[in-house]
Structure formats: structure tokens, C-alpha cells
Amino acid sequence: MSFTLFPDTRLALARDSLAGLSVGDALGSQFFVPGRHPGDLTAGKLPPPPWQWTDDTEMACSVVAALADAGRIDRDALAAAFAERCEPYRGYGPGAVTILRLIRTGTPWPVAAASAFDGQGSCGNGAAMRVGPLGAWFADSTARAAAQARASAEVTHAHPEGVAGAVAVAVAASLAARARLDGHRPAPERLLAGVAAALDPASEVHRGVRRAADLLGRPPREAVEVLGNGSRVTAQDTVAFTCWVAAVHLDDYPAAIRACVEAGGDVDTTAAIAGSVVAAHTGVGTPGGVPTDWLAAREPLPDWST
Ligand SMILES: [Mg+2]
């Protein structure tokens, strides 16, 4: 079934997803500060503000700005925006810093992206961490969400798994936002089946999402053991777990973030991804949505952000 989605609605959905992404990123990264314990969050004790956001949020803001500007991803423009706005102290990995420096100094993005990791291209979780709001923007079409996610990933991630990770997260956010418009919550197995259907069956990310569906109803500890928690910072060991968290907690943003924090690993990124998908469904300040006091504790988004 097709329907009309006006630009203002797309932007509102993308902004809600970005709020969930940036709060998850900023709160998640607090648990790398010595002396902070996941148990504090479980007990309802929040770290003192402000919570600084990291590379996940910086890049996601560029994705949303690109869509607000043109309604679609122009790969050349997005690559230039990523490169110009990169503040390396925001926690970018060394591979990302190198690619973005090459682009900033005039290397075409296809060359820069392909040169990473001895010519294999990056399969890092960086294309997945920034793409949730793009999926929410394309709430009317998982096919467009997937195609545009691919375009947004390719400028830095030439490895097929890095791209697959972005496609998975964008499709999850598209389905989550669509369900919000339709006024229902999809069953976890339906959401994961929708994500798996958009992926190349030969990819590890696809296998992970299928495994995530088999782990519904199992304790989070078991899901982490099988799916990973991002500690290798690859798409393969990040995306399936975050999809599992989002599917299980689609109507409860704080619970999704707590699950990511308790899982350990690349917490700012797992919380950013799961948070972007869940917030596309719940919104901000709603029952189960991004709590307004969490949003207020997050460092303001960059001035150039739309
Ligand atoms: Mg980060």
C-alpha cells in the first residue's frame, strides 16, 4: 500500500529518530568514563549532565541535513559534508579519520573508501550508526530506505558487510516509523523478518538478523553471546544485536538503552542504533519515548544541524 508522506512529516520522523540516536550515543558514551557502572542506570541513577555526543551523532546530523536539503542522498555532497564536519576528538576510529582526511584533501570518495583496510574497504559499524533517521525519513518505502542507506554507506564503507549493516538499520527504522503512522506495534519476529528480507542472504549481517529472530524470548546475555555487542566495532558484531534490542523494546526507549548499556561493548554505537530505531516508533516525550530529561541532559546538537 502506498501513501503520501509530506516533507514536514518525513523531517519530523527523522528528527525523532535523531533524538533517540543522539541521546543513546551521548548516554552510552558516559559508561566509558571510569567509575560509571551500568547498574546505576538500571537503578534509575543518571550520569551528571552534559552528556557529550560522539561521531555517531555528528555523522547522523549530516545525513539528516542532506535529506532536509535535497530529499535524497547525493553521495558526493554527503562525503564532503562528513569530511568537512569531522571533529576527530569525537571518537572517530582511526580508519574513519584516514578516509575522511583523504576526502577532505581531494581524494575522490570511491578511491578513499576502497583504500581502507588494505583495499578491502571498511566493514565497521560506522555506516549503520548514522543511518536510522534516514530509515525514518523513508517510512513509506523500505525499498527506498534500503537504496538510500546503501548510497549513504558507500561513501565511507566499501566492504559489503559495512553496507549491509546500514541497510539493515535503515529498514528497521523505516518499518518502525511506518508502524507508528499506522498506529500499531509490529511483533518482534515480523520486524526482524522485514529487515532480513531486505538483505543479501549471503551476508553475515543477514545471518545475524536471522539468528536474532531465533533468540527472541531468550535473555540478553545469550543474545550478546551469539550476536556480539559491537566490541569488534564491525557491522557483523553490532547490527544484529541492535536489531534484536529494538525489536524486543520497540515501545520502550529507556529499556532499549538500558539493554545496550548492560550488554557492554561499543555502547555509544549500540545505544545510538537501537535508540534511532525505537525513537522512530515512539517519538520524544511520549509514554515509552525518549525521556525529555534525557534529551535535556544531552549536549545540544551542532549549530549547523537542521
Ligand atoms: Mg561513537
Give the helices and strands as they follow along the chain: HHHHHHHHHHHHHHHHH
Let me know the largest β-sheet: none
Which term fits the overall shape? globular
Q: Can you count the helices?
A: 17
Instruction: List the ligand species.
Output: magnesium ion
Structural class: mainly alpha
Q: Whole-number average pLDDT?
A: 96
| Number of E strands | 0
Taking pLDDT < 50 over at least 5 consecutive residues as the criterion, the unreliable ranges are none
The percentage of residues in β strands lies in under 5%
CATH architecture: Orthogonal Bundle
Please write the CATH class name: Mainly Alpha
CATH topology: ADP-ribosylglycohydrolase fold
Span from first to last CA? 30 Å
Quick structural overview:
The protein contains 17 helices and no strands.
Descriptive account of the structure:
The protein has a single domain (about 5-295), classed as Orthogonal Bundle (ADP-ribosylglycohydrolase fold). Helix 10 (about 160-180) packs across helix 11 (about 190-195) and helix 12 runs parallel beside helix 14 (about 240-250). The protein is built from 17 helices and no strands. With about 300 residues, the protein is mainly α. The mean pLDDT is about 95. It has helices spanning about 5-30, 40, 55-70, 75-85, 95-105, 110-120, 125-130, 130-135, 140-155, 160-180, 190-195, 205-215, 220-225, 240-250, 255-265, 265-280, 290-295. Helices cover about 65% and strands about 0% of the residues. The two termini are about 30 Å apart. The protein binds magnesium ion. Magnesium ion binds near residues 54, 91 and 268.
